[in-house]
Specification:
Elements lengths: L5 H10 L9 H16 L33 H4 L6 E2 L2 E2 L11
Antiparallel strand pairs: 1-2
Length: about 100
Protein backbone atom coordinates (compact mmCIF):
# COMPACT_ATOMS: atom_id res chain seq x y z
CA UNK A 1 0.00 0.00 0.00
CA UNK A 2 1.56 3.32 -1.02
CA UNK A 3 2.15 5.80 1.77
CA UNK A 4 -0.08 8.84 2.07
CA UNK A 5 1.76 12.15 1.88
CA UNK A 6 0.73 15.39 3.60
CA UNK A 7 -0.32 16.93 0.26
CA UNK A 8 -2.88 14.12 -0.20
CA UNK A 9 -4.14 14.66 3.35
CA UNK A 10 -4.55 18.35 2.57
CA UNK A 11 -6.51 17.48 -0.60
CA UNK A 12 -8.76 15.00 1.25
CA UNK A 13 -9.36 17.56 4.00
CA UNK A 14 -10.34 20.14 1.37
CA UNK A 15 -12.82 17.71 -0.22
CA UNK A 16 -14.30 16.98 3.22
CA UNK A 17 -14.37 20.72 3.98
CA UNK A 18 -12.13 20.19 7.01
CA UNK A 19 -9.64 22.74 8.23
CA UNK A 20 -6.55 20.93 9.47
CA UNK A 21 -3.57 22.66 11.06
CA UNK A 22 -0.62 22.47 8.62
CA UNK A 23 1.73 21.22 11.35
CA UNK A 24 -0.49 18.12 11.86
CA UNK A 25 -0.68 17.03 8.18
CA UNK A 26 2.33 14.71 8.47
CA UNK A 27 0.86 13.08 11.59
CA UNK A 28 -2.48 12.54 9.86
CA UNK A 29 -0.68 11.19 6.78
CA UNK A 30 0.99 8.55 8.93
CA UNK A 31 -2.27 7.64 10.65
CA UNK A 32 -4.18 7.39 7.36
CA UNK A 33 -1.39 5.23 5.94
CA UNK A 34 -1.66 2.90 8.94
CA UNK A 35 -5.43 2.67 8.48
CA UNK A 36 -5.11 1.89 4.77
CA UNK A 37 -2.48 -0.77 5.49
CA UNK A 38 -4.79 -2.39 8.04
CA UNK A 39 -7.78 -2.25 5.67
CA UNK A 40 -5.62 -3.78 2.92
CA UNK A 41 -5.43 -6.90 5.09
CA UNK A 42 -9.07 -7.51 4.17
CA UNK A 43 -7.91 -8.38 0.65
CA UNK A 44 -6.11 -11.38 2.14
CA UNK A 45 -9.24 -12.81 3.77
CA UNK A 46 -10.65 -15.79 1.91
CA UNK A 47 -14.27 -15.25 0.96
CA UNK A 48 -14.70 -18.56 -0.85
CA UNK A 49 -18.16 -19.91 -0.17
CA UNK A 50 -19.43 -16.62 1.24
CA UNK A 51 -22.50 -15.41 -0.59
CA UNK A 52 -22.22 -11.77 -1.69
CA UNK A 53 -24.63 -9.49 0.13
CA UNK A 54 -25.65 -5.87 -0.19
CA UNK A 55 -26.78 -5.78 3.44
CA UNK A 56 -25.68 -7.92 6.38
CA UNK A 57 -29.25 -8.57 7.54
CA UNK A 58 -32.30 -9.54 5.52
CA UNK A 59 -34.23 -6.43 4.56
CA UNK A 60 -37.88 -6.49 3.58
CA UNK A 61 -40.17 -3.61 2.72
CA UNK A 62 -43.17 -3.22 4.94
CA UNK A 63 -46.10 -1.93 2.96
CA UNK A 64 -49.38 -0.60 4.20
CA UNK A 65 -52.32 1.06 2.57
CA UNK A 66 -51.96 4.79 2.09
CA UNK A 67 -55.04 5.80 4.03
CA UNK A 68 -55.61 9.51 4.63
CA UNK A 69 -56.06 10.42 8.27
CA UNK A 70 -57.57 13.34 10.06
CA UNK A 71 -55.73 16.63 9.52
CA UNK A 72 -54.28 18.56 12.46
CA UNK A 73 -55.74 21.82 11.23
CA UNK A 74 -53.95 25.15 10.83
CA UNK A 75 -54.34 26.31 14.45
CA UNK A 76 -52.82 23.16 15.94
CA UNK A 77 -50.13 22.92 13.28
CA UNK A 78 -49.00 26.52 13.81
CA UNK A 79 -49.37 26.47 17.61
CA UNK A 80 -45.60 26.24 18.27
CA UNK A 81 -44.41 28.20 15.24
CA UNK A 82 -42.09 31.05 16.26
CA UNK A 83 -43.68 33.28 13.61
CA UNK A 84 -46.82 32.77 11.62
CA UNK A 85 -49.11 34.56 9.25
CA UNK A 86 -52.16 32.32 9.44
CA UNK A 87 -52.47 29.90 7.76
CA UNK A 88 -48.73 29.95 6.91
CA UNK A 89 -45.41 29.57 8.68
CA UNK A 90 -43.45 32.81 8.45
CA UNK A 91 -39.74 32.36 7.72
CA UNK A 92 -36.87 34.76 7.06
CA UNK A 93 -36.40 35.86 3.47
CA UNK A 94 -33.54 33.96 1.83
CA UNK A 95 -33.47 35.23 -1.74
CA UNK A 96 -34.06 38.56 -3.38
CA UNK A 97 -36.64 38.62 -6.16
CA UNK A 98 -33.97 39.63 -8.71
CA UNK A 99 -31.53 36.79 -7.98
CA UNK A 100 -31.77 33.44 -9.70
Amino acid sequence: MPAIDPKQVEHIAHLARLQLPPDRLAVYAGQLGDILTYVALLNEVSTDGVEPTAHPLPVANVWREDVPGESLGADRTLANAPQRDTPYFKVPKLLDQGSA
